[in-house]
Amino acid sequence: MSSESFIFPSPQWAEAFCKALNENPEYREAAKDWVWDVVFVATNVPSTVVNAIAQLMGLSGVTSNAGAMKFKLRNGTCQGSEFYIDASKADADYILEADYSLWKDLIQGKVDPVGAILSRKIRVKKGSFLTLVQFSSAAIKMTNTAMKVPTKFLA
Amino acid sequence: MKAATYKGPSKPYLEVKEVPTPKPGPGEILVRVAATGICHSDIHLFKGDFGPVREGFIPGHEISGWVEDFGPDVKNPWGLRKGDPVIVSWIVPDGICKYCASGKENYCPAAAGRMPGLVGINGGHAEYITIPEIAVIPLEKGVDIYYAAPIACAYGTAYHALREAGVGPGTSLVVIGAGGVGLSAIQLASAMGAYPIIAVDIRDFALEKAKELGATHVINSTKEDPISRIRDVLPDGADVIHEARPEPDLKLSMEVVARAGTIVVTGLGGPKSTFTVNVLPFVINGVRIMGSLGYRPRLDLPEIIKLVASGKVDVRKLVSHTYVPEQINEAYENLERGLHARAIVKWG
Asked: ipTM score of the complex?
């Protein structure tokens, strides 16, 4: 892992997270049966963060305050990532949505991912809740991986 | 009298022919049948899912009609007179056991062995039926006697399930399966103040009917992802899920039930039907899963009749098809093809 840090959420952060997942054997084992694309939607993203990401991407006039990152997850590997500054454009087998502040807490290790899903702080907008619960170990390894990504929170 | 009698498990299931008109025995009432409903449970019966059915048995358990005569020793607690409009319950409790005494007469052991048109007693697909008086419930004046027949099964089953699940004003409800019972549940729940009411089915015409009867949202699960559509409307899940389809599996229900929510099942399934439940979300979300059989004839049916008489529930809206007795096999054929919301056969 380089010392460079990445704004969350951003295309660069998504790419770094994808790479980190591939480097984590614990995640690979826990998610070996997972074969679905996942979109993580962050809602209520502060405008300072939106503006910084828009600038990073060379965009102007961005009005959405919900961004999304899509990960192509197959058998414990991450086969690619996509970033959407407008979350409504993102689609996948699973769509998990939460406030920006919740994702931030999760990446900082202040929130348990399984508890957040079960208590519906992370909302399963699309996909089987019951299947997701069966991969709770993978969710924990995934969060542990996210905690290792050098992350910069602008708000 | 004219009656539709059982031939066997292959189609056509029934034969319309003349049979002797029954005479009411002790404690029984002779009812002249106005109409009978065409119910999916009959298909289970015809196929032998409830056990062997004797040839000549008269099915039909959703019955309305008029009091024609009284047998000896009738106590007549409702003060019925000849010619009074009534519905006939397919649950015939003994009225004295501990289940009946505790208001659970739909689980009366005696009732399990005598269900008109289903088990033991001839049913109502005929011009007349004799029935123990405890199963005869008076209709209010002004209620259309023909369209009232589904009160004795579809509405009754739906109403009891909704009551058992605690549906009331503001309850969010998902009804899976917009057949006769599911549609009745939607209509009753709307009258009871449930909101929102989401109907899920695979047939567009059934969903159109669901909207007409009070569904606030409808989902064709062959065209849309029902999980995400329901979560769009109810991010925290539904307070109550009513599994009213013939083969319930709880899969969708467990995905969209709210914490501390209730799943109530009325679809009977086949003899080998099972469902599996993921234990962790079941326990930590405090989900209540309950089966609900029929209704309490002396308690639930009069309440539904009041709802109908008050105009809050228009039973005429539920019935999509009306048949004459000679078309009864066609009626079951159409039922199996999924063409009905609810169908009735007019006998009188």
From this structure: 0.74
Find the mean pLDDT for residues A109-124: 90
List, as ranges, residues 124-143 from A with C-beta within 8 Å of B: 124-130, 133-134
Q: Are residues B38 and B50 in the same domain?
A: yes
Q: Which of residues 200-259 of B touch A (CB under 8 A)?
A: 225, 227-228, 231-232, 235-236, 251, 254-255, 259
With beta carbons under 8 A apart, name residues in chain B contacting A123.
Answer: 231, 235
Helix ranges (DSSP H) in chain A? 11-22, 25-30, 47-57, 100-107, 113-118, 129-134, 136-148
By CB atoms closer than 10 A (0-12, 13-18, 19+), residue B36 is buried
Query: Between the CA atoms of A12, A17, A22 and A27, what dihedral angle is there, to the nearest 10 degrees?
Result: -170
Q: Which residues pair with B257 in a beta bridge?
A: B238
Q: How far is A57 from chain B (nearest CA, A)?
A: 30
- Asked, for residue A83, whether it belongs to a domain, the answer is yes
Question: What residue of A is the nearest CA neighbor of B234?
Answer: A125
User: Number of helices (H) and strands (E), helices first, in chain B?
Assistant: 11, 15
Per-residue confidence (pLDDT) for residue B51, from 0 to 100 = 85
Residue A138 is part of which domain span?
A: 7-146
What is the domain count for chain B?
2
Three-state secondary structure readout of A11-43: HHHHHHHHHHHHCCHHHHHHCCCCCCEEEEEEE
CA–CA gap between residue B100 and residue B98 (Å, rounded) = 5
**Residues of B with CB below 8 A from A127's CB?**
227-228
User: Residues B248-269: pLDDT tens digits?
Assistant: 999 999 999 999 999 999 998 8
Q: How far is A42 from chain B (nearest CA, A)?
A: 16
Helix (H) or strand (E) holding B85: strand B85-88
Task: Answer yes or no: is A1 within a domain.
Answer: no
CATH assignment of the domain containing B273: 3.40.50.720
Task: Specify the pLDDT at position A118.
Answer: 81
Residue B115 to residue B121: CA distance in whole angstroms: 6
Is residue A20, in this structure, part of any structural domain at all?
A: yes
Say if the Cβ atoms of B284 and A123 lie within 8 Å: no
Q: Which of B27-31, B50-54, B145-149, B313-317 has the lowest mean pLDDT?
A: B50-54
AA identity, residue B5: T
pLDDT 10s digits, B216-236 = 999 999 999 999 999 999 999
Whether B256 and B324 share a structural domain: no
Whether pLDDT at B15 is above 80: yes
Range of the domain at B217: 156-291
For residues B108 and B212, membership in a common domain is answered with: no
Q: What are the structure tokens assigned to B144, written together?
A: 């259309």
